[in-house]
Amino acid sequence: MAQATLPPEVLDDAKARRYSADAAGLGRLRAGAFVAPALALISLFLVFPALWVLYLGLSNYRLTGAAAAAPQSVGFDNFVKALTDPEFWNSTWLTFEFVLGSAVIGQVVLGFLLAWIMRDRTGPLKRIVEGLVILAWILPSAVVSFLWVALLDRDDGTLNTLLHSQDFAPLLDHPMLSIIVFNTWRGAAFSMMLYGAALGNVPPSHLESARLAGASGWQQLRDVVFPHIRGHVLTNLLLISLWTFNDFTPFLLTAGGPDGKTEVLAVHVYQVALQGGELGYGAAVSTVILLINLVVAVFYLRLLRSKK
Amino acid sequence: MSAIELRGLTKVYPGGVKALDSLDLAIPDGEFFALLGPSGCGKTTLLRTIAGLETATGGAVVIGDRDVTGLQPGARDIAMVFQDYALFPHMNVTDNIAYPLRIKKVGKAARQQKAAEVGARLGLEQLMDRRPGQLSGGQQQRVALARVMATQAQAFLFDEPLSNLDARLRLEARTFLKKLQHELGVTTVFVTHDQAEALAMADRMAVMESGHIRQIGTPAEVFQRPANTFVAGFIGSTPMNLLDGVVRGDTLEVSGCKLAVPQSAEGLLHDGEKIVYGVRPEYNVYSAGPVDGSLGGNVSIVENLGASYLVTLDVNGVLVQAVVPEGHEPLIGDEGYALPRRDRALIYRDGELVPA
Ligand SMILES: Nc1ncnc2c1ncn2[C@@H]1O[C@H](COP(=O)(O)OP(=O)(O)OP(=O)(O)O)[C@@H](O)[C@H]1O
Ligand SMILES: [Mg+2]
């Protein structure tokens, strides 16, 4: 911008470079002053804790006892311990099941189906369905967890009261399935809204041209809709996979039980670090989780980029 | 290849807009039929109802000898070119052309051969591996045509397929499309709001107004003898002069001037009745000096049409237009006289042509 107002002969190379680095024409100092508060907050709440976790992971820091007062560096012992601990691998596997079942399959499929069914509809039915789905998403975790426990509980649960039975106890008998269904229900709204917006971008004439050719509903999805929303699907998968991977809400339903059957990684970290008091070890597990998250993110971003 | 027949076709959109009002239309096998009308008159709706993309509220659509009113679009055996061409951006030209065949489960080799054949016919040989995003508007239009041709449908429907092309390409595409349709001999319904396009291309045409057909005929019939004042005012590159008048014995009184009764209406008018006198500016002979039976007044506007001028006369407060060859154009304020050709002027009674 600034260059355009100056005669070209005034601008030698060095000046041009300086102007392009300082697009707003504020000068570095003042520009820096504008972003400083934001940078300070980000450092305080994001960068510092992340570095602190890296540091803790290399120590034997505990919640209580001597190691709490004077933590010692233990090198990579915590990481070795984590990677050789069958409980850690069990949790990783459970997390994988949870993400695959509730996010990649549950939320994506349910969210897309809702968006697809509602795409041409207007009026009260659409508003009611959308309202209910979004309600499940925006209510606080503590509230919805309590509602689900109240519904499914074996002793005084609503479901058993309605069935006049005492033995329907999904949280005990099928704990993983329970949290998958719960999380699908809870998170479908995001996918529904994202796909709703994406479907609005599919040109109606493309769908109609497929219909005229005689394409079935499935063929229209495959040949017209999916190629148009492929980028949206990947973005959606990336976001909900990571959110679900780090989700702690299952703890509120099952507390990781029964018998560790729903101890996903987020819950596992809580158990070892805060229940078991091994903050150093918990920090190391957190670091591993972070790395897994990075791998997942890079995988999706690669896919997204390969589209272009 | 089949005839198309519409019987009492009605379409009411949710919300109460009556886009088609019990419309009857018969298009014989192999005809190139144009639908013309002002924006919002229901042309697209008519086409989409034939295609089955809109369900008819009443009436019937018959293609060939099948009543297809209740059938899905895919079962009607018709093909359509959309205004935006609706080419699939992720498929190359070959796959786009072959798509309807793929849906019909034609084998891969067979459908690719068919696509290559049709593509070659439309001059697309060099482009078969490109995606639609890598084609110009005119090329995309030909791909859309090729896709329609490859289906070998009973009838083609085109919704303003030329409106996305620039003026020059449009002229080329017009000639090309007409030639192609005559070679293929497939019944084609063509929507346009460009009357020059309709006049140039169609075997027959219909002029629509708010859900009704106001006239059906060959372009020559519609241009020379518009059946009513609506069509008269709509058709023609410069609108027809439509002047209120009264019959006085065996002459007409039109805005203070005495005119002869046009040949077509001779002996059909009654003394004292009110009529509308219609004459195209092209059929008004202009002269600078007074002439018997002409419309005289002062020149108020002179517009350049290229090889001729459109001169607007103020005849006792009524505007009358005449086309004047170049080199003879008057100056604003001059006195001028427009003499309508008796063999071309028309009389409308209650908005309808006399004789009907
Ligand atoms: N989906 C719809 N819902 C309600 N009304 C509609 C719908 N589509 C069209 N209409 C109305 O029906 C009438 C006819 O519309 P149509 O699209 O057939 O006009 P058209 O002749 O194709 O016009 P244009 O030359 O502008 O394309 C218009 O009044 C329009 O507002
Ligand atoms: Mg239209």
UniProtKB/TrEMBL annotation, chain A:
Which positions, given as ranges, span the membrane? 34-55, 93-116, 128-151, 279-301
Q: Which GO terms describe its biological process?
A: transmembrane transport
Q: Does the keyword Transport apply?
A: yes
**Any idea where the ABC transmembrane type-1 domain is?**
93-300
Membrane-topology descriptor: Multi-pass membrane protein
Its main subcellular localisation, reduced to a broad class, is membrane
| InterPro entries, per database record | MetI-like, MetI-like_sf
Question: What's a single GO CC term here?
Answer: plasma membrane
Name the keywords, alphabetized. Answer: Cell membrane, Membrane, Transmembrane, Transmembrane helix, Transport
The listed locations are: Cell membrane
Presence of keyword Transmembrane helix = yes
Protein family (similarity comment): Belongs to the binding-protein-dependent transport system permease family.
Q: What is this protein called?
A: Amino acid ABC transporter permease
The taxonomic lineage of its organism, from the top, reads: Bacteria, Bacillati, Actinomycetota, Actinomycetes, Streptosporangiales
From TrEMBL, chain B:
Q: What is this protein called?
A: Sugar ABC transporter ATP-binding protein
The ABC transporter domain sits at 4-235
| Pfam families referenced in this protein's UniProt entry, alphabetically | ABC_tran, OB_MalK
GO terms, molecular function? ABC-type transporter activity; ATP binding; ATP hydrolysis activity
Arranged from A to Z, the UniProt key words for this protein are:
ATP-binding, Cell membrane, Membrane, Nucleotide-binding, Translocase, Transport
Q: Please verify whether the record's keywords include Membrane.
A: yes
Task: Please indicate if the UniProt record lists Ribonucleoprotein as a keyword.
Answer: no
A Gene Ontology annotation in the biological process aspect, one of them, is: carbohydrate transport
**Cellular component per GO, a single term:** ATP-binding cassette (ABC) transporter complex, substrate-binding subunit-containing
Please name the InterPro entries in this protein's record.
AAA+_ATPase, ABC_transporter-like_ATP-bd, ABC_transporter-like_CS, ABC_transpr_MalK-like, ABC_transpr_MalK/UgpC-like, Mo/tungstate-bd_C_term_dom, NA-bd_OB-fold, OB_MalK-like
